Amino acid sequence: MTLAFLGMNWQTLADAVSLGAIYALMAVGIGLVFGVLRLVNFAYGQLVMAGAYALAFAYDHGWPVSVGILLCFAVVLTLSLLLDRIVFRPLRAHSPAVMLVATFAIAFLLQSIALLWFGPLGKISASLAALNQPVTISGVDIRKIAIVATALAAACLLALVLLLGRTRVGLHMRAAAMDFRTAELLGVRAGRVITAAVLVSGVLAAIVAVMLTVQTPLVTPDFALRDTILVLAGVVLGGMNRLVPATLGGFAIGFASGLLGGALPTNWSQYLPSFLFAAVILVLLVRPGGLFTREGQRAAERV
Amino acid sequence: MSRSFAGVHALREVTLELGRREVVGLIGPNGAGKSTLVNVLSGFDLPTSGSVELEGKDVTRWSPGRRGRNGLSRTFQHSHAFRSLSVRENVEVAALGVGASAREAKDRASELLGTLGLTAQANAAAETLAQGDERRLGVARALATRPRFVLLDEPAAGLPEAELPDFSSAVRAVRDDHDAGVLLIDHNVALIMAICDRIYVLDQGRMLAEGTPGEIQANLDVAAAYLGESAVQDTGA
Predict the structure, then answer these.
(1) Do B96 and A190 touch (CB under 8 A)?
(2) Labelling A151: which of A43, A252, B6, B207 has CA 20 to 30 A away?
(3) Same domain assignment for residues B88 and B133
(4) Is residue A246 within 8 angstroms of chain B, CB to CB?
(5) Per the structure, how many domains does chain B have?
C-alpha cells in the first residue's frame, strides 16, 4: 500500500535491492584495494567493462555461457594483476593523489582501447538474457536477475566475511588495512596481501560484469562508468576507511538509485544522478566521516 | 654507527651489542638518541655511517619486515595496535606472519596473553584498551614472532607501580624461556637496574657508559648526566 502510494511496485523494490547488492559488491572490490594500498581505484569500472566485453566476445562467437563466464573471469583477473604489477605497485610509495590520477589515466586508456578494438557502437552480450524473464512469487512478478543478483551478492559477502574473519590471509589483510608498516614488521608479507586483495577485488568485478550485462546487454566503452562513479560516491558516503560502512554505502546508493529510477516519471529520470549526488553532498555536510560509521570510530580514525 | 638529521648529530659513533639470553638496558635523558638508535636497529631509519649486523649478517639495508622475519622484533612508544582487531587477533597476526599454523598461533596468543596479564581482554577490540594494556599488547605481539632479539621501546611507561613486578618477570621470561636477547629502553632507572644484565647510557648522541647495573650505579658521570635529570622528571611526572 505504501509502495503504491510512492508510485512503486514490488518489481521496482526488487530491482532496487538487486542494484544495491551489485553496487555493494563493487564497493567491497574498491574498498578492499583501498584498504591495503590506500588507492582509490577509479579504473575499477573499466575492469567490469573488460569483463563485459569478454562476455560479448564469447556471445559473438557463439560460445557456451560457461565459456563466456570463464573468459570474463580470466580477462578481469589478468587485467587486475597486470595493473597491480605495472602501475599500482611501482606507485605505492607515492601520494594518494598521484595514484588517483594514475587510475584516472588507466580508466581512460582502457576505454580508448575498447573504443579502438570494438568500435563506438558497442557489442551485444545476451547469453544470459533469459534471466530478465519474471517469475511470479505470491502474485508478484519479479525478474529472475533481481533474485539471482541479490542471492549471489549475499553469498559473496558471506564468503568474504569468512575469508576476512577466519583465514590467515584475511586476518593479514585486515591488519595491513589498519597499519601496513606494522603488519609488515610483524612478518606479514605485503606482496601476498596486496595480491590477495587485488584478486578478490577482480573476482568481484567479474561477477559484477556478468550481473550488469544481464541488465544492460549492450556493452559500450563507457560500460559501468556511471555505476563506478555512483559506487565511489556511495563508498565515501558510507565511510571509506572501513569495509562494512563502505559496503553499506554502496548498497544504499544502489538501492536509492534503483528506487528513484523506478519512482521518478520517465521525463525526470535524466535528473536521477543529480538527485543522488545532491543527496550525497547533503549527507557528507552533515556527517563528513560517513553515514555508517560510529561517532567514536570517526574521532579515532582521524588521530 | 652514526646518524645525523640535517647536520644535527643524533647519534655519534655509537656501538651497541646485544647477545641472546641477555636483557640489556638503554637509558639516557630525553633527546639522547635512544629512539633514533632503536629505529636504526629495527630498520625504520638508516644510519648516516656505520652498519647494523644481525647474527653476523649485514642487515643495514634490510627492510623492517625482513629483519622481523629474521628474528628481530620491536615495540613502539606509541601504540601501533591494529585498532579494530581483537587483542587476541593482534597477537595471532604476528604469529601467523612468521609462519605459525592457525593452531600454533592460537596457542601462542593464549600463552602470551596469559604471561602479560591480558587474558581477560583477549576478545576486546584493541582500541578499547587502557594505555598500559596497550603497551603490554605491543610486547605480546612482538614476542609472538618468536624473535631472537627484541627491542622494547618504553614498554613499561604508563604501567601502574603494582604491575611492575609482573612486567619484570615477563621480560625475564623472554630471556630465559625463549632464549632471546632483549633491549629494554625505559625512563624508570630502578626498573632497568633491577632487570638488566648490562646497561648502556646514551647522552646527546654519545655512548657515555656501558656496564653492569652495579658499575653504572657507581659511575658518577652517569649520575650527572642522567640520574639528576631523571629525578627532576620523576617529580614532574
Answers:
(1) no
(2) A43
(3) yes
(4) no
(5) 2
* A172: nearest CA partner in chain B: B93
Q: Give a yes or no: residue A266 inside a domain.
A: no
Q: Which residue of A has its CA nearest to B67?
A: A185
Cell of A177: 588495512
Number of CB pairs, chain A paired with chain B, less than 8 A apart: 71
pLDDT of A59 higher than 90: yes
Q: Distance (Å) from the C-alpha of residue A302 to the closest C-alpha of chain B?
A: 13
Compute CA distances B163 → A78, A113, A195, B117, B126, whole Å.
55, 65, 43, 10, 20
Average pLDDT over residues B88-95: 92
Do B64 and B94 fall into the same domain? no
Q: Which residues of chain B does A168 touch, with a Cβ-Cβ cutoff of 8 Å?
A: 96, 102
- A187 and B141 within 8 Å at the Cβ level: the answer is no
Q: Report the SS3 class of residue B53.
A: strand
Say if the Cβ atoms of B84 and A178 lie within 8 Å: yes
Specify the higher pLDDT residue, A246 or B232: A246
B131 at interface of A, judged by CB pairs closer than 8 A: no
Q: How many domains does chain A have?
A: 1
H helices present in chain B, as ranges: 34-42, 64-69, 87-97, 102-115, 131-144, 164-178, 189-195, 213-218, 220-222, 228-236
Cα B48-B50-B51 angle, rounded to 5 deg: 110
Percent above pLDDT 70 for chain B: 89
Cα(A278)–Cα(A294) distance, rounded to whole angstroms?
23
Burial class from Cβ neighbours inside 10 Å (0-12, 13-18, 19+) for residue A275 reads middle
My answer on whether B36 and B54 are in the same domain is yes
Cβ of residue A299 closer than 8 Å to a chain B Cβ: no
pTM, two decimal places: 0.80
pLDDT in tens, B102-156: 889 999 999 989 888 889 989 999 989 887 788 889 889 988 988 999 999 888 8
Predicted ipTM beyond 0.95 = no
Write out residues 154-193 of A within 8 Å (CB-CB) of B. 168, 171-172, 174-175, 178-179, 181-190
Q: Verify that B67 and B111 share a domain, yes or no.
A: no
Is the pLDDT at A136 greater than 50? The verdict is yes
Domain range for residue B108?
Answer: 75-146
User: CB–CB of A300 and B83 under 8 A?
Assistant: yes
Among the residue ranges A79-83, A119-123, B77-81, B176-180, the one predicted with the least confidence is B77-81
Residues B96 and B61 in one domain: no
Say yes or no: B153 and B225 in one domain. yes
- B46 contact A CB<8A: no
Residue A59 within a domain: yes
